[in-house]
Q: What sequence folds into this?
């Protein structure tokens, strides 16, 4: 038991396509046991222990969730842009 790195877990809301924090300060084993079966759950390494005991008030978790959501949106929009990237170019005379 030398691995002291903490894990946060975020769950993707399928309807809003946003990540929400569901747990933090978990051990690797704990995170895997609880969330490994969830395809919508994302387990992320924490750089440090989060001091907030209340997830809803945890700033690092909120920030990480926003970053995951942004990355997800970027991945989706870049896939769509390839189809119609030049459609918006219109010249007026
Ligand atoms: Zn946290």
A:
């Amino acid at each position: 038991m030398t691995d002291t790195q903490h894990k946060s877990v975020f769950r993707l809301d399928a309807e809003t396509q946003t990540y929400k924090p569901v747990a933090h300060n978990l051990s690797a084993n704990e995170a895997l046991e609880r969330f490994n079966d969830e395809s919508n759950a994302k387990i992320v390494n924490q750089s440090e222990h989060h001091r907030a005991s209340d997830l809803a008030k945890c700033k690092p978790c909120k920030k990480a969730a926003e970053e995951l959501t942004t990355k997800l949106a970027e991945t989706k929009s870049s896939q769509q842009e390839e189809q119609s990237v030049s459609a918006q170019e219109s010249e007026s005379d």
